[in-house]
């Protein structure tokens, strides 16, 4: 999910907002060593914080049904949303040029409030949800730009705080498998006696044709049991 947000931001910042300026968009940690290697105008979006947004946590499951019979194929847990915080900075040889780049970025970012689904790829595109973002908003808590620069060992520099809220798809749960094996019942002579034996009978399902009916026994006739009963059946052999 994170790399897909990076790709969407790279296209938005580089191809759309900066256009043909030739400014490179990177996602590196702006350490002192990294800054010393910069020899061309660069915009850097450093991901410095990831936090779940509990206010967007949904409840219940979404049912995935078959296209023909409407049978249940799976159930989906609601997506979990995470706030990705980027420290956006401009790097040139002159501070005035950096301020100009930051101004262009700010004007382009406040013109919209979300990364629309058509900008996304991979799993984020499949979800089809817009990714809301804020830019240069007052920090709601956690690490601020000064803390980030201190941790990186660099000097404080003008920056834009860009926070993109993106989902991770919930777990897809498959329904329990249907029972396809036949149920066999063993029937035995409750009276016992010599030659008593059991037989296997299989229940008939709704879509199964009925078995041929047995001939009715005459009134008062004594029912054969054991070996005699088996011998009286078609193809039966007494043992």
Task: Produce a short descriptive summary.
InterPro entries: Pvc16_N (IPR025351). With 239 residues, the chain is of the alpha+beta class.
Describe the protein.
The structure is a single chain. The protein is of the alpha+beta class. The protein folds into two domains: 172 residues, STM4215-like; 46 residues, no CATH class. 24% of the residues lie in helices and 26% in strands. It has six helices and eleven strands. It has a six-stranded mixed beta sheet with strand order 1-2-5-8-7-6. The protein has a three-stranded antiparallel beta sheet with strand order 3-4-9, with no helix packed on it. Helix 2 links the parallel strand 1 and strand 2. Helix 1 packs across helix 3. It is rod-shaped, with a radius of gyration of 36 Å. The two termini are 72 Å apart.
């Amino acid at each position: 999910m994170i790399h897909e947000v990076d790709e969407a931001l790279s296209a938005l910042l580089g191809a759309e907002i900066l256009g043909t300026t030739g400014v490179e968009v990177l996602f590196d940690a702006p350490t002192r060593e990294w800054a010393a290697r910069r020899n061309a105008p660069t915009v850097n979006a450093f991901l410095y914080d990831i936090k779940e947004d509990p206010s967007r946590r949904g409840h219940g499951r979404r049912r995935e049904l078959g296209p023909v019979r409407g049978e249940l194929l799976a159930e989906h847990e609601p997506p979990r949303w995470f706030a990705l915080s980027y420290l956006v900075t401009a790097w040139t040889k002159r501070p005035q040029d950096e301020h100009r780049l930051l101004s262009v970025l700010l004007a382009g970012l406040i013109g919209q409030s979300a990364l629309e689904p058509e900008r996304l790829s991979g799993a984020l595109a499949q979800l089809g949800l817009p990714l809301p973002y804020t830019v240069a908003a007052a920090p709601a808590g956690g690490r601020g730009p000064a803390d980030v620069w201190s941790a990186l060992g660099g000097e404080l520099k003008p920056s834009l705080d860009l926070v993109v809220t993106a989902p991770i798809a919930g777990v897809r749960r498959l329904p329990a498998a249907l029972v396809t094996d036949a149920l066999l019942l063993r029937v035995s002579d409750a009276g016992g006696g010599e030659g008593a034996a059991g037989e296997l009978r299989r229940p008939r399902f709704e879509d199964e044709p009925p078995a041929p009916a047995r001939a009715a026994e005459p009134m008062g006739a004594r029912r054969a049991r054991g070996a005699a009963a088996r011998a009286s059946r078609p193809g039966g052999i007494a043992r």
